[in-house]
Amino acid sequence: MEGLLIAETLRHLTPLLPSPRLGWRFPDPYTFVLPLRQGALWVYNKPPHAQIALKAEVPPAGGTHTGFQDLLVARAGGSLEGAEQFGLDRVLKLTFGAKGGFVTTPPVGLICELTGRNCNLILVDEAGVILGVAREVTREINRFRQLRPGLPYRPPPPYDKRDPRTLTDEALAALLAGRPLSALRKHLDGIGPELTATLARALDVPRDRPLEGAEVARAVALVRRLTLAPSRVIEELGGRPDLAELRAREAQQARLSRLRSALQKRRNLVQKRLADLQRVFEAALEADTLRAEADLLMAYAHQVPAGASEVMLMDFSGEPRGIRLEPRLSAVENAQARYERAKKRLARLEGAEAREAALHDELRTLEERLARLDELHEDELEALEARYLAEPRAPRRAAPGTRYRSPQGFEVWVGRSAKGNDELTFKLAKSRDVWLHAQGHPGSHVIIRAENREVPFETILFAAQLAAAYSKAGDSDNVPVDYTLKKHVWKPKGGPPGAVHFTQQRTVFVTPSRRPEGEGADDEA
């Protein structure tokens, strides 16, 4: 997305600020939607089409798809108070206020780098220190500018360009005269390939030919219009796909890619099965030979020496025939083995012709569908998806820990292993659930399922006794237990199972008990 288009969007956004705290929505891993008093702010972070837009549509609330989306829910939950662009660069910052609640969350900023294939989202604290990144940039990727949690945020290096909004008509004319439109983006900030193409269509001139005469005056007027309302100019000249259309197009491309892969996989399987059937046919041709040899061995068994590995016998037409034998078996046993092999080969042949015909029909259909996949109608696509993209039934998973119920009626889960702790904390627990762990001692993660209710302190003490009991400090009398909201707990990159970092915790001291006063453990564990 180009700088002038971002500036236009922020001009429309500013009157809507500060916004109420309505919560993030995440339709997919790349789309971040923040409801406003009117409509919503959409941030699309998929390379190379990253963009920001104000839309009337507000998607329904749902879950998250990535760890960075989890982080936004936890840390950027206050009201949206400001939005600023870095000059006319493709970088902007959304500022969120503090959020009260169980523990007050301090203000943060969300930096949106809408820079094509290098687009990114970076969450920073008030001091500009990175809290999280949608796509981390390590030294191996960029040795000049890393984007990782804990590092100070550094914006992309600035361009030495001029702001078209501040130039006079004379200065613009001097800059445009004698230069082709393709060179414009090197000198004017906020204008990239899309707006350059818009100028070329409006002026009806090639992008690589220098402007001259009346073209310069027309170009100045058009650049002036672009600085005020670039979207309107683009729409007048044929339009551009809006965010919804772009997302729909990319979703359809991803859908076709998944289906193409499934069809190719099935085609390979069908080809393999046809090759297997061909081997069945070839093997069946040898069944008559096996039975003829078995008949000879049965007829002349008395002529076959014991322990022989090969024998020469006269067949029933009077011709000599050599037969290889298994020395450990008698002549009769060698004959019986041949009869059995012939029987199995013929048994495999039964129905093979019908299977081969069906497989050839399916192969022809698959080849035809693959060749026309981009042209198929919706009903044809749905039929293929139903046949080849059926979701496998997931096996029933074991519970991640032991479930208790507090006297106040809250579910309390206790992890049973390092892997179970991970599953409990990062798959079962929700952002507003309470997380507990014995301070300074290895032990189980404990989760209180809040289910949108305020968790009373009595339940926290109940769960803290369990956390203390299921730790290495379980034999002590007075154990410190840390607790915080699950949204303040995260897994260190590359950390072993069960390892976590957490913040904004409080501490209680309790006596360990695996049966705190209450209803105790459920049968389901």
Main attributes of the structure:
alpha+beta, ibrinogen binding protein from staphylococcus aureus fold, 4 domains, five-stranded antiparallel sheet, 14 helices, RQC_Subunit_NEMF, NFACT RNA-binding domain-containing protein, tRNA binding, NFACT_RNA-bd
Strand adjacency order, main sheet: 19-16-14-15-13-12-20
Enumerate how many helices there are, as a single number. Answer: 14
**How is the biggest beta sheet arranged?**
7 strands, antiparallel
N/C terminus separation: 51 Å
Q: Strand content of the residues, in percent?
A: 15-25%
Helix proportion: 25-40%
Number of domains: 4
| Spatial extent as radius of gyration | 36 Å
Q: How would you sum up the global shape?
A: flat
Q: Give the mean pLDDT.
A: 87
Task: Give a quick summary of the entry.
It is built from 14 helices and 20 strands.
SSE blueprint:
Layout: H1 3-13, E1 25-28, E2 31-35, E3 40-44, E4 51-55, H2 67-75, E5 80-85, E6 91-96, E7 108-113, E8 120-124, E9 130-133, H3 169-176, H4 184-187, H5 193-203, H6 214-228, H7 230-236, H8 243-285, H9 287-299, E10 310-314, E11 320-324, H10 331-349, H11 352-371, H12 378-388, E12 401-405, E13 411-415, H13 418-428, E14 434-438, E15 446-448, H14 457-469, E16 479-485, E17 489-490, E18 501-502, E19 506-510, E20 520-521
Antiparallel strand pairs: 1-2, 2-3, 3-4, 5-6, 6-7, 7-8, 8-9, 10-11, 12-13, 12-20, 13-15, 14-15, 14-16, 16-19, 17-18
Helix pairs in contact: 3-6, 5-6, 6-7, 8-10, 8-11, 8-12, 9-10
